[in-house]
């Protein structure tokens, strides 16, 4: 499954955010303001792990005004690394049948950690109202869940 999110700032219609997946709708979907979830399937697939991730994300966002930028990034990384299985979930169980069943307890979590399969990278992208961008990426090194590299880049958008 491949997905693309794109964001165009300051068009005649205002900011535009679109989603396109290689399965599902044949044309890009224009997104209204709100909170969406993207896992290893289509946007807002009704899996319990995706709904749980959106709930955790919303809780962090609701507190975000009281957090320093670095703390906000860390809390968002914590959300993306939550390994609590969200079971039972018939929708996710039917998705992969024989492939998923042996790893279902791990696959049904926001963060999947299985030998040879799972979450390898997390990205947090913050853009403030002045166009200041903080891009933080946490990447697993050598397929070893105990080794991670975190890189942060800051720049300003030219609007």
TrEMBL record:
Gene Ontology cellular component list: Golgi apparatus
Provenance organism: Pavo cristatus
GO BP annotations, alphabetical order: Golgi organization; protein secretion
Domain of life: Eukaryota
Name the record gives this protein: Transport and golgi organization 2 homolog
Stored PANTHER family: SER/THR-RICH PROTEIN T10 IN DGCR REGION, TRANSPORT AND GOLGI ORGANIZATION PROTEIN 2 HOMOLOG
